[in-house]
Amino acid sequence: MNQTVLFSANGYVETEIAGVDEAGRGCLAGPVVAGACVLPAEYDLPGLNDSKQLKAKDREFLYDGIRAQAIAWSIGVSWPREIEAVNILEATFLAMSRAVRTLKTSPRFLRIDGDKTIPGYALRQEIPQEAVIKGDGTVPAISAASILAKTFRDRLMVKLAKRYPGYAISQHMGYGTKVHMEAIRQLGPSPIHRMTFRGVKPEKPAQQQASLF
Question: Which Pfam families is this protein grouped with (predicted)?
Fold first, then answer.
């Protein structure tokens, strides 16, 4: 299926616009990963959609197609120690800005999935931006960025699962599933866990109320 888009948001041509999205923001382990993608006016990416709505095999197929057909694509990563140091929102902005800054072409406009744009101090350059709520399912360039981020991160987490066995990371990709939470309780957190996240950081013992009797 060929798709042609001549013009897009705010008067910019589609080939001047980078879509940006992240994966792994809500996980207890592993990095937060951002994707940035500039699509050509014509592309053949059947089923392009929000990565969360796709099966893994479909994401893998589109991942290769996006990288082959995109004008430019890139990945940005923020690891757990950085997440702990600056908080997950700031780390997400850093990952997004790294993805944008390492694109092989400079976009003239950014469309960011969600309700927030990338702060200028993180982006380090002046590029007009637009936040698009649920953009990963409605804006093709954001959908492509979503697939890039999710697939890259999943592949990375499968590799990390071999380095840190016992947590079933390749099954849940670092999200707070029942199996994952139980593994943390039994084994303690690993070096790739986010120590400031609830469910990972040690809970303070409840203070007992003093009795008068």
Answer: RNase_HII
Backbone angles phi, psi at 32, to 5 degrees: -95, 135
64 a known binding residue? no
Amino acid 210 reads A
Contact 194, 27 (CB under 8 A): yes
* 84 pLDDT more than 70: yes
List C-alpha distances in Å: 20 to 52, 144, 149, 169, 181. Answer: 15, 9, 9, 25, 30
Residue 113 assigned to a binding site: yes
Question: Which CA distances in Å does 155 have to 24, 69, 110, 150, 170?
Answer: 12, 21, 26, 9, 9
Query: 2-187 belongs to which CATH class?
Result: alpha beta
pTM of the model: 0.90
Q: What's the confidence (pLDDT) of residue 3?
A: 52
